[in-house]
Amino acid sequence: MGEGTEDSGPVGVGSIDHVALAVPDLDTAISFFRDRFAAEVSEAVTLAEQSIRIAFVRLANAEIELMEPLSRDSPIGRFLARNPAGGLHHICLATDDASSAHSASLAQGLRPLNPPRPGYHGRPLFFLHPKATFGMLVEIEEAEREPDDARYQNWRER
Ligand code: CO
Fold it and tell me: Is 0.90 surpassed by the pTM of this model?
């Protein structure tokens, strides 16, 4: 773990936004959470550029992101090859400001894997290398903002 420098504070995070589960079959997983837990589950969405189909199980305090790979030769496809029945893939922590959280992560030696980039919701997010976080892949995502929020607008225009 890196030492924070004097002018770098800790990474500002709030609640858990979601926990992501890789599953071999998304439709089966959607039915599973609807039927066995009476949970509200979103419709499935295809994210072609990430080679996944996803849906969100909406719980009171957080969501479970269900991810089915569309190809074996993709990060989730390779993860599922190692965990054929499915497996916990990452957790997502919400932050107020992804750009500041990214700078702080660098300064704290948390090895961000990418600069903040827009995710499915259009909010900026990045991942931390699991070797920097006790083996847990951590996604850090900017919390939802009102569309007229100035920082959000600025970010979208970049
Ligand atoms: Co996620």
Answer: no
